[in-house]
Design goal:
Layout lengths: L1 H8 L3 H21 L2 H17 L4 H19 L1
Helix pairs in contact: 3-4
């Protein structure tokens, strides 16, 4: 039965490879998105942008809240 199921499943092999690759890309993207060092760096950028006037107080507060939410999700 293993040979028959292997032969019948052979046309699906490329699809399995694509799905595996998509999962690897998603895992890597999530790892970078929730990386604490990256979040801290973005928080520093928001602080600098607020000081230089590039971001208003409300925009900076909104962005900081989003970044802190990401940091809390990572720790949970």
């Amino acid at each position: 039965m293993g040979i028959v199921s292997g032969l019948l499943g052979l046309p699906l092999a490329p699809m399995r490879g694509v799905l595996w690759l998509a999962q690897q890309i998603q895992d890597q993207a999530e790892q970078q998105y929730y990386d604490p060092a990256r979040i801290r760096s973005e928080l520093e950028w928001v602080d600098e942008a607020r000081r230089t006037g590039e971001l208003s107080e409300s925009e900076a507060a909104e962005r900081e809240n989003e970044l802190l939410q990401r940091l809390m999700v990572r720790r949970a």
